[in-house]
């Protein structure tokens, strides 16, 4: 029986094998954030000469990439990326994701938007029928935390500020429990339209193109 840590290591290695054929010598790779991505960065390190550079979704991933000797580019200097690799807190069978457990959702959505493909990497425990058991992270401008919380409560959620946490953008995170997310794309638009919301952790308007899920029996691919 593999531990969750071993399952993450397996999918990190599988992701390296999956993305290397998509990269050319001048390619920039989009890199997400989280414990699974940390392992992906580690597994990628021996192959850093195979592509030009990375573009990262957090200070955490940037630091790890640089420690391994990768060049990390500012997104403003990058026009396109063949692939973006990131984890998820939940993913459904239609490749809609709920993300932001690590608080990097906004930069993740921005970097992913510049990539041609989003490859989600996770252990199988993240696969769900309906998103929303994991509290939905919403990044807000600090002065709007109370007004956004009232609007989220009106949508049926129970927002709680992630105490002591400030995002890489200077925002706050509201973790919203109690939402039954049966229409993820519609809810993503509704929440993103609330004044003061930077973005919410639903990735449904633009979900993953493929998911590599680590199971006790091996890697399962959803596409
Ligand atoms: C960070 C994220 C992560 O991708 C998500 O939280 C999954 O992390 P982990 O690989 O540690 O389970 O969205 O903002």
From TrEMBL:
Pathway named in the protein's UniProt entry: Carbohydrate degradation; pentose phosphate pathway; D-ribose 5-phosphate from D-ribulose 5-phosphate (non-oxidative stage): step 1/1
One GO biological process term: D-ribose metabolic process
UniProt GO cellular component terms: cytosol
Catalytic residues, chain numbering: 108
Root EC class: isomerase
Binding residues for substrate: 33-36, 86-89, 99-102, 126
One function term, GO molecular function aspect: ribose-5-phosphate isomerase activity
EC number: 5.3.1.6
Keyword Isomerase belongs to the record: yes
Catalytic activity line of the entry: aldehydo-D-ribose 5-phosphate = D-ribulose 5-phosphate
Keyword entries, A-Z: Isomerase
Short name of one Pfam family: Rib_5-P_isom_A
SUPFAM superfamilies referenced in this protein's UniProt entry, alphabetically: D-ribose-5-phosphate isomerase (RpiA), lid domain, NagB/RpiA/CoA transferase-like
Keyword set includes Isomerase: yes
InterPro entries reported in the protein's UniProt record: NagB/RpiA_transferase-like, Ribose5P_isomerase_typA_subgr, Ribose5P_isomerase_type_A
Superkingdom, taxonomy of origin: Bacteria
Function: Catalyzes the reversible conversion of ribose-5-phosphate to ribulose 5-phosphate.
Alphabetical list of HAMAP family matching this protein: Rib_5P_isom_A (MF_00170)
Family of this protein: Belongs to the ribose 5-phosphate isomerase family.
Subunit structure: Homodimer.
Name of the protein in its database record: Ribose-5-phosphate isomerase A
Taxonomic path: Bacteria, Pseudomonadati, Pseudomonadota, Betaproteobacteria, Burkholderiales
């Amino acid at each position: 029986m593999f531990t969750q840590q071993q399952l993450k290591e397996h999918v990190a290695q599988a992701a390296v094998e999956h993305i290397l054929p998509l990269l050319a010598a001048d390619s920039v790779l989009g890199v997400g954030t989280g414990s699974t991505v940390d392992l992906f960065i580690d597994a990628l390190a021996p192959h850093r000469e195979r592509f030009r550079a990375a573009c990262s979704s957090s200070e955490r991933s940037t630091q790890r990439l640089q420690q391994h000797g990768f060049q990390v580019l500012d997104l403003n200097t990058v026009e396109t990326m063949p692939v973006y690799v990131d984890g998820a807190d939940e993913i459904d069978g239609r490749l809609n994701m709920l993300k932001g457990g690590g608080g990097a959702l906004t930069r993740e959505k921005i970097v992913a938007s510049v990539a041609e493909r989003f490859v989600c990497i996770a252990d199988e425990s993240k696969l769900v029928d309906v998103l929303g058991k994991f509290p939905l992270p919403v990044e807000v401008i600090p002065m709007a935390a109370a007004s956004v919380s009232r609007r989220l409560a009106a949508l049926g959620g129970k927002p709680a500020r992630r105490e002591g946490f400030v995002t890489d953008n200077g925002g706050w995170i509201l973790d919203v429990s109690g939402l039954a997310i049966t229409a993820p794309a519609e809810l993503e638009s509704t929440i993103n339209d609330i004044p003061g919301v930077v973005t919410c952790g639903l990735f449904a308007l633009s979900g993953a193109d493929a998911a590599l899920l680590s199971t006790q029996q091996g890697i399962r691919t959803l596409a």
